[in-house]
Write a structure and sequence with these properties.
The complex is a heterodimer. By secondary structure, chain A is mostly beta strands. Chain A has no helices and eleven strands. Classes of the chains: A mainly beta, B mainly beta. The interface between A and B is medium-sized, with 29 and 22 residues.
């Protein structure tokens, strides 16, 4: 099992550009989530999904869109990048019934 | 989900036990206590979780007080590789889907 994979590892954008952060898992987990982590801070939940076709907002959803067309993939879209979105982004999938989360290695995004 | 309070930072000598406290005074009867750690900007890693009874696995032990208002994560023989930020999370295991992380405790293991 590859676990949770994320691409790219690093990305630099200019203000106003859009992009998609990719996340995939091969553990057949229904639940997946996206978090952002700003320097010296804890993780904040952006969006989550409880299964294919079902998504919902977390703590800080503004400026981000998600969709879940398959169990394996959960991409995060930045619609119009802003410097405030400079952060490290983590994707996670959740195992049931223990509810243990497995995290990807992260994408480090800088918006200039 | 109940709110948790953890010390901002702690130091521990290598080879000694590291005891990381967590207060969760508003925990409800069916909420579990989870611990994760994050080593130097990697993705967080699951350590252990429990409801009422003390739990032990190959990584750590979790001690939950009888009133469940606080808990302690114990790393029995800390090594330099245990230097990380440790997060205590209280949540229901199913029926709600949000996993809320706080700011955690930064543990530094000293040689």
């Amino acid at each position: 099992n590859a676990g949770v994979t994320q691409t790219p590892k690093f990305q630099v954008l200019k203000t106003g550009q859009s992009m998609t952060l990719q996340c995939a898992q091969d553990m057949n987990h229904e639940y997946m989530s996206w978090y952002r982590q700003d320097p010296g801070m804890g993780l904040r939940l952006i969006h989550y999904s409880v299964g294919a076709g079902i998504t919902d907002q977390g703590e800080v959803p503004n400026g981000y869109n998600v969709s879940r067309s398959t169990t394996e993939d959960f991409p995060l879209r930045l619609l119009s990048a802003a410097p405030s979105q400079t952060s490290v982004y983590f994707c996670a999938s959740r195992e049931t019934p223990t509810d243990t989360q497995y995290f990807g290695p992260g994408t480090r995004l800088t918006v200039l | 989900d109940a709110k948790t309070t953890q010390p901002t930072s702690m130091d521990c000598a290598e080879g000694r036990a590291a005891n990381l406290p967590c207060n969760h005074s508003t925990i409800s009867g069916n909420e579990y206590v989870y611990w994760y750690r994050q080593i130097h900007s990697q993705g967080p890693q699951y350590i252990i979780h429990g409801l009422k009874n003390n739990e032990t696995n190959e990584m750590a032990s979790l001690i939950i007080t009888e009133d469940r208002k606080s808990s302690t994560l114990i790393l029995p023989h800390a090594t330099l590789r245990d230097t990380a930020v440790y997060y205590c999370i209280v949540r229901l295991t199913s029926g709600t889907y949000k996993y809320i992380f706080g700011t955690g405790t930064r543990l530094k293991v000293l040689a």
